[in-house]
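thought: fold this chain, then report.
action: predict
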Amino acid sequence: MAPEPHKQQLDVYERKDLHMIKVAFTGAQGVGKTTILESVRTRLEAEGKNVETLPELIRECPYPADRESTFNTQLWISSHTIMRETDLAEQAEIVLVDRPITDIAVYKELVKANKGMTEDQDRLLSGIVDSWKHTYQLFFHITVPLEDWKTRDLEDGFRNTEEEVYLFLAKHFARVAPDGHHHIENIDLDKSVATVYEKIAAIVSED
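observation:
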């Protein structure tokens, strides 16, 4: 059975004196997660909220990404996601996470499809995801229609722009989205930002 993350890190989310909201943004590449996240952050900060963001860690990862992703890639990202989220939870009122731990459950399927993962490695990553996914107070699964995605400028020298990879990942993102998540079909950016902001604001007002 896979080990759970370090108890000290899990304790952060059980402290009664820590009033923090952690918000996850997930979805396939190029659907607008980062744009929505940054727009919401700007609006919250304009209201005086203490907000921190965790960007996509794959851009910092020393191991290969996308089709070339390996077990080491996913293990590095999962461990660093937990550590960075824990640090930010101590610093901010609201933490916005661009690719939460649940994304590991998606990208490991890409590794498995390329026969780059053993059953034990699969179980280890699944155990990490299962033990950490409950720490998000809000979870947004962002999508766009395929025809809309095809019209977007995705050439940033990093993101995979292959339709085959996009469809493979999109299928698995829909499968692993947790119960109670909010689905945002990002056709109208302003509307998407407003919806996300309103749901965060509703939780903030409850505190």
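thought: worth noting. The two ends are 36 Å apart (CA to CA).
final: tokens above.
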